[in-house]
Amino acid sequence: MSHQAAVLGVGTSSFGKQPEVPLAQLAWSAVQEALSDSGVDARGIEAAYVGSVLGPFGSAQRALQGLGIGRIPVITVENACASGTTAFHEACWAVREGRYETVLVLGQEHMSSRITGAIPPDLGDPEGRSGLALPGVYAMAASRYMARYGLTLRQLAQVSVKNHGHALGNSRAQYSGDYTVEEVLASPLIADPLTLLQCCPISDGAAALVVGRAAARRDAVRVRSCALRSGRAWGYRSEHAWGFEIVRETAEAAYAEAGLGASEADLFEVHDSFTIGEILSIEGLGLAAEGEGGRLTESGHTALGGPQPVNPSGGLLSRGHPLGCTGVAQLAEVTWQLRGQAGARQVEGARIGVVETMGGGVAGLDGNACVVAVLERP
Amino acid sequence: MTRRLPDPRPQVEIVAGRAHVVGQQCAACGLRTTLVVSACPGCRGELAPVRFGPDGTVWGSTVIRVPVAGRTPPYCLAYVDLDGGPRVLVHVKASTEPVAVGTRVRLRGDSGGDLVVELVR
Ligand SMILES: [Zn+2]
Asked: Mean pLDDT over residues B96-100, rounded?
């Protein structure tokens, strides 16, 4: 027996550096909001799927213990930046296949207590050991795109201008602002050509979803499809930028399952950990042809008020990027949008929303994991 | 802990005064890599040891300007497509600006275990 999986309720903490707030407390605010939003009692949760990257181990059970949620199976997932959406992917399949009827998805991360400064490269990885910090991976892709496709610094900066502007309508976002392209380009260089305002911040936060059967509620947001892929060998003779092919393949699988294409989506929440990441994502998702992402962004197509807004929440750049939480926060945003509850940042008449998260860090792969999900309004 | 972790970076061999990087090539699909792997990442085929370099072309480049554990910024990095070989991550000697895509470079050896290239003039 197969069931239609759906999002029954969502909740999030606020996002930002919150070193004084324990991780469990961030998770409680997200889970309590999601439960209350869904109308499901905590006793009705049959399993929990939790995305978390930096841990510490046991943090999922610690958070759930404080809500009186115990004994049920708790599955903690690490898939780099796609951990939260990977947890969601597994939750959806569990509901579809009838393994459980109602489950909790939680994404949580407390970066400020786990690291100081930027994410330290993994010394067990050949490129990490050689000093390749994550901004560098994206920065080199940007340099390639500028040389190969004529992507301009102004087009890159426009992604940041747009997403910081979108976040003005999101009171839970870490940062927001009415920046100009010049201000973005004048912020300090992190890894050429990426400046500070083009890089996601270190954040703490949590987000939660109740996933169940679409028939459970009239306002259930249906999961039309969800696809998960890991990366392939990159760097032998791939002409594509790092991270492009994994997004494209995952998106193709998700669209095929949903029976629709990028042109039918009304909004997107995508992986803009760096400005070039959003360009690569919208191309991988088929919103722009390869090499055209910068021009599409500059045209206003992906801005709020445009035909297909990308990252109305402010994205990772502005809402923040608490690693394991991010994918669930993206899904919460799309759920609010599809229910018409996104307030000042509402995409009018949104019917179909797409979430894309991708994570990397393993040398020689074009990504560790990518998830693309297609959601439809009640 | 770090000290006991085997160094995963590609190894350099100097042959007749020219620097090469040690890697493997797949007999079945031709994939070339400097990664330490037990089967071909592309097709699971068998790999044979081979040397790559010293010349190549810059695929992309950046300068890291923020502190990274154990490093002093700024430092210039590039992905280089070695002629007939794989794409490798290198440090560009004495460069405080990114190197233009397409620039020809030559492996010079390693510095503290990092692959190092110089621009070919
Ligand atoms: Zn092979």
From this structure: 97
